[in-house]
Amino acid sequence: MSVAVRLGGWLGWVSSSISAAALCLAVGAAARADTPPWQRTETRAPCADFDTLRRPLFGDLHVHTSFSQDAYIRATRVTPQDAYDFARGQTVMLPDLAGASTRPVTLARPLDFTAVTDHAEFFGEVRVCTTPGSPAYGEDLCVRLRETGIDVDRMSQNNSLFSFPAGLPDPPDSHAFCSLPGVDCDGDAVSLWQETQAAAEGAYDRSAACAFTSLIGYEHTAAPLGAHLHRNVIFRNEAVPAFATSYLETKQGGAPEPLWSALESDCLEAGTGCEALTIPHNSNLSGGLRWPDPADADAAARRQAREPLVEIYQHKGASECRFDRLAGLGADTTDELCTFEQDPRQAQGPVFPRPAIEDYPRRNLVRNTLKDGLALEDGLGVNPFRLGFVGGTDTHSGTPGATEEAGWEGHRGGLDADVERRLSTVGFGSEQARFSPGGLTVAWAEENSRDALYSALERRETYATSGTRPVVRFFAGHLGGVVCGRPDFVENAYRRGTPMGGEIGPVQGGGSPRFAVLALKDPGSPGRAGTDLQRVQIVKAWVDGAGQTHERVFDVAGSPDGVAAVDTATCTPIGLGHSELCTVWRDPEFDRGQRALYYARVVENPTCRWSTLACKDAGVDPFSASCDAQAASAGPAFAACCLDEADDPFMEPLIQERAWTSPIWYRPEGVARLGARLGLRDQSDQDHLRLSLTFGRVPGGLDPAAEDLSVRLADDDEIYGVTLPAGALEARNERSWVFVDRSGSQGGVRSARFRINGRGEGKLDLSARRLDLSGADRSDHMIRVEVELGSLQADETRLAKLRGSQLRLGR
Amino acid sequence: MRHAACFAALGAALLLLQKILLPAGDDRLELVLAESDVERIYTAWQSETGVRPDAPTRARLLEEAIEDEILLREALALGLDHKEPIVRERLVQLARYLGSDAAPAAGLEAEARALGLDRRDPVVRRHLIQSMRLLLSRPTRNDAPSDAELEAYRVANAARFERPATLRFVHVYLSREGRPDLASDADRLLRWLRRERVAPHEGPALGDAFAAGARVGPASAARIDRLLGVGFSEQLAEAASGYWSGPHTSAYGLHLVWIERRDPARLPDVDEVRNELVHRLLRERREERLRRSLAELRGRYRIRVEIADARGAG
Question: Is the pTM for the entire model greater than 0.95?
Answer without folding.
Answer: no
